[in-house]
Amino acid sequence: MSWQNGAREATPLLGGYIPVAISFGMVAVQAGFSVWQSILISTLIYAGASQFLFVAMVAAGAPWGLVVVMTLLINARHVVYGPSIAPWLPKSRWWPFLSHGLTDQIFALALSRLPQLPAEQRLGWYSGAMLLAWFSWVAGTAAGAIAGEELSRHWPLLGEIMPFALPALFLVLLAPRFTSRTWSIALGATIAVAMLLTLYGFTNASIPLAAASGALCFYLAKLTIRAGGYRNG
Amino acid sequence: MDNGFWLALLLVSAGTLGMRFLPLLWMQRHLLKQKSQGGLASIPGWLSVLGPLMIAAMLGVSLVPATADWSTWLATLLGALSAFMVWLWTKSLGWPVLAGVSSYGLVILLVRISTGG
To answer: Membrane spanning segments where (chain B) (predicted)?
Structure first.
């Protein structure tokens, strides 16, 4: 069954999703949101970084208009995800719902796996992966909002260790892309810029900025290699 | 929480869904149009470059430890190396992630035990 395959291949995501969702549930309740409100935020917005910002800004008493604008700005990177995987997605009336689950991680997984799957299995695969990730995020938030402090008292290291599943997964998804000098330069530069921006505290802007720098490197490297080829040839 | 919360939640949810769904819908229609005109249905070149670079950026962001000190950097380095080595060996998704998390966790545990933390 293709949806089972999707759910199975999305399982490594849970190591990253559940501990972060538990933290979000705890933070939201501490900021004055009720358990139900915290769960609703995770169910409806379903975008990690922007949810933390939403809660922090509300707790700090920021105007609602500013909360909406800032939260949407952080999520603006999502506009390139759908078009990037569109060639491998069949038409379906379920897309208005299914695209709700197009997070950073599901996009990364889908971009790597969908081209390898037969066309008739893609919708099922995506649905299984997306639903598992979404449910784990909502369930993790509920657990954090209801019993977050107790969970972190019982398993203090688990929340620190399990999120490493995300960089490990991204690494595995990216490794087959180092296929040429141009790609290696662009990917290496993107990783380095993203790490630097994160280290200097620009975590929210680092994904689009690093990807844009990487694209610049890609086209510059391509031009340089082509120019070198003409000189030698 | 006042009514502002519900309105903000609604706007952010609808806006985020729109940013995920509308570009997808637009590209699906664009590809169908290309196909119906007898052309080869393909996405713009810059978009196929940007996709893998977004994953690389996510990797860069997630590699930086939440509490950055020598032990978490060492754990990150060894965790990433283990994941990569197991990927070279198995070319699968799950096993490299398991190996990466195990190595990362082992280093953190050993450092905690040796420093009595």
So the answer is: 6-27, 39-64, 70-90, 97-115
pLDDT for residue A219 is more than 80: yes
Tell if the CB–CB gap between A167 and B42 is shorter than 8 Å.
no
- Which structure tokens are listed for A127? 């649905």
> Which residue ranges make up each domain of chain B?
1-47, 63-117
Tokens found for residue A207: 């994904």
B113 to chain A nearest CA, in Å? 12
Backbone CA torsion sign across A7, A148, B97, B24: positive
Distance CA A173, CA B102 (A): 19
Check CB contact of B4 with chain A, cutoff 8 Å.
Answer: yes
Can you tell me the mean pLDDT for B9-35?
Answer: 93
Q: Chain A residues with CB inside 8 Å of B61's CB?
A: 194-195, 197-198, 203, 206-207, 210
DSSP state of A117: S
Q: Which of residues 95-114 of B touch A (CB under 8 A)?
A: 96-101, 104-105, 108-109, 112
Summarize pLDDT for B47-91 with one digit per residue, the tens: 888 888 988 998 999 999 988 899 999 999 999 999 999 999 988
Query: Given an 8 Å threshold on Cβ–Cβ distance, is A214 in contact with B11?
Result: no
Contact (Cβ atoms closer than 8 angstroms) between residue A185 and residue A179: no
Q: How far is CA A27 from the centre of its chain?
A: 20
The CA distance from A221 to A135, in Å, is: 42
How many Cα neighbours within 13 Å face the side chain of A220?
Answer: 9
Minimum CA–CA partner of B104 in chain A: A161
| Residue B36, amino acid | S
Rounded to an integer, what distance in angstroms lies between the CA atom of residue A13 and that of residue A125?
A: 15
- d(CA A9, nearest CA chain B) in Å: 7
Structure confidence at residue A225 (pLDDT):
80
Return d(Cα A93, Cα B47) in angstroms, integer. Answer: 24
